[in-house]
Design goal:
Elements (H helix, E strand, L loop, with lengths): L2 H18 L9 E2 L1 E4 L2 E2 L4 E10 L2 E4 L5 E6 L6 E2 L4 E5 L2 H36 L5 H34 L1 E3 L4 E3 L9 E2 L7 E4 L4 E8 L3 H9 L9 E4 L11 E5 L9 E8 L11 E7 L6 E5 L4 E3 L2 E13 L10 E18 L2 E6 L6 E5 L8 E4 L15
Length: 393
Amino acid sequence: MNRAQLSIVFISCIALAACSKKQAPDNPEIPVNLMKVKAKRVFYFDKYPSTTAALSQVALLPQVQGAITGIYFIEGSHVSKGQKLYEIDKRIYQAAYDQAVANLQVVKGNLDQAKQDADRYEYLNKYNAVAKQQYDHAMITYQNAKNQVTASEEMVKTAKTNLNYAVVYAPFSGTIGFSQVKLGNVVSTGSTVLNTISTEDPMAVDFVINEKQLPHFEQLQSGKGKNVDSLFTIMLPDNSLYPAIGKISVIDRAVDSQTGSIRVRLVFPNPKNVLRAGMSCVVRVHNQDTEPQLVVPNKAVVEQMGEYFVFIAKDTIISNPKAKTDTGRTKKELVALQRKVMPGQTIGGNVVIKSGISEGDKLVVDGVQSLHDGSQITTKNKVAPGAGGKGGK
């Protein structure tokens, strides 16, 4: 036998060996674990990122110009309404006030003289003992003197106001921040920020909701919602729960047309000054759904292009035209059917399903990564992927 004949025999043997192997089934069953969907009452909070804000906050701006000659508070401390905070060099304003007062005294003296002349000429005029022109001039001089007194009185008020503005007082009670100026700094009218004061009790907490949620929050604001304990609470930046309960204070006047959102403001008591303006926290709104809801494991939900799906196991008759007997041509098998769902609130490792499945459905909870719509599945004596144990119906 030559070399060519040996090669043919060798290739034939390989072909026979390949044909003798069993071919894999066309649709192998995928092992999964199932659970029966049940409705139950759930306790959870809707959560919203939020920021604390002072109900009243003002930047202190000087109303007069000059050098800072006094600072009368401790930075970061509580100040009371009317408390003296800053003093601006008042010497110029004191001198202007004194001058205005002196001018007022002069014009009052001129008024007295003008009144005497006016009274004398008025008497003489009754008996035609004075020229008409002199009488008219006396009356005009008297009226001008009265006007000068009025003008001088206004100048005194202006000088007094400027003198008072040289001392800056707290407009309301609250917490004062770091001083933006030091002793000796020259401040300008209406442009130099001296400091900022904000109220601390109560404290506002602002967060944003979707416009679709607006009717619900309007009901809560009007008191028409269900009376639920701890309806509004907040988580502090260290993930601790703030002990006080809040209430809705304001819902913004308009929806943001760009984002479809609207701002809501809660108010919380803050007697111990735990909340500071500008803190980042999380608002928790207690759910008011008292009806049982469908809750499934997070791992059973698959996200595809922003949509969410689960797999439901259904008993299905499978055709097998290659079977040798009539009874073997059809058989009952489990099939995974894909269902689009609308997820709700996440609760730990579970998620609430709002729509797409029904109570009593057999849900695939393990092995979903290997499935597609119509996959044949099994739970008999097989370990589902990642399950770590035997499956079961």
